[in-house]
Write a structure and sequence with these properties.
mainly alpha, single chain, two-stranded antiparallel sheet, 6 helices, 2 strands
């Protein structure tokens, strides 16, 4: 059984280490079928990058006025599925800092927003939209919003396919 379960957490270091080692082995000596996963991950990365201008424009207008910080540190850690995607695009998770409470603002949040490139952020960070942000995006130009929602659906479908393929391959990995 592979160590990439939903229980994987940076806070549980031994399991985290085993998960990283497993991914290093899988992506270091790719088994058959991994090419498709890597290609899908590249498509996801490009899709997220294509969404970035729309998201930056809208978060830049909404988030500075907000009094509640959505970006809590507990959400800033990559999970098992995020790690699969990161390894598939040739990236690794960032170095996390010790001693930051889960309830504190995210360790990657700066005065100018997130310090991680959008395609490298945890999935939950990229796809969480508070009600104020959603309302703002929905009230904007309809064509832009339709293009945005279409690309979001495409990226979500690609991610689902990537994970299904990966777990099928990982289940047969030694």
């Amino acid at each position: 059984m592979h160590p990439l379960t939903s229980e994987l957490s940076w806070h549980k270091r031994e399991g985290w280490r085993r998960g990283i080692q497993f991914l290093e082995r899988i992506f270091g000596e790719p088994p058959p079928g991994l090419t498709r996963i890597v290609e899908r991950a590249g498509e996801i990365r490009r899709g997220i990058a294509a969404l970035n201008p729309f998201l930056e424009k809208n978060t830049g207008e909404v988030c500075p006025r907000c009094t509640m910080v959505c970006c809590a540190n507990k959400h800033g850690y990559h999970d098992n599925e995020d790690l699969i995607y990161l390894f598939a695009i040739g990236e690794r998770p960032p170095l996390y800092r010790e001693g930051i409470r889960d309830s504190d603002p995210c360790q990657f949040l700066s005065a100018r927003g997130c310090t991680l490139e959008r395609p490298l952020r945890p999935f939950r960070c990229t796809w969480y939209f508070c009600s104020a942000l959603l309302e703002h995006m929905e009230k904007g130009p309809a064509r832009e919003y339709r293009a945005f929602t279409g690309m979001v659906r495409r990226v979500l479908a690609l991610r689902r396919e990537l994970l299904e393929d990966f777990f099928r391959i990982a289940g047969s990995a030694p």
